[in-house]
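Archive record:
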Amino acid sequence: MIVSLMQKEFVEKLGWLKNEEMQDITIIAQSAPGPIAVNTAIMLGYRLRGIKGICMSVLGMILPPLVILSVISVFYTQFKEFALIAAVLQGMRAGVAAIVIDVALSIVMPVIMDKKPFYILIMVCSFVAACILKVNIIIVLIVCLVIGLIKSAFNLIKA
């Protein structure tokens, strides 16, 4: 979710990165251990300002949620029964759903716009396997990894 917001800010609004650079950073951040938002922030911070950028981006990613969640946890048990709080939490669910859809579309649309049938087929097959056939997502990811490695090997042989 936050990666989509980062992309809009750094690529579209500020123009600090190209869309391809942001996609590469996001892909690498997904493969690294830890939260993707923090990994992405680390890579963006380093790309833009080196070690100082890493420190500031990590603080910027970790401190606000830490403070907000700490405050919420103190008051949550006292106020969770109030109708207003329940309504706010219900509204937040709708907001989270909208952000998840936005992130999914920001990942899917470039693949569709590039009109590369192989990648579209992989995407559709992965979706069908995970969501319709209920194949474990780890298996889907491993199969996609193997397919990607095979495709890369064939591309190296061709070159």
About this structure: Residues 17 and 93 are 31 Å apart (CA to CA). The chain is about 85% helix and 0% strand. Residues 36-79 form the longest helix (44 residues).
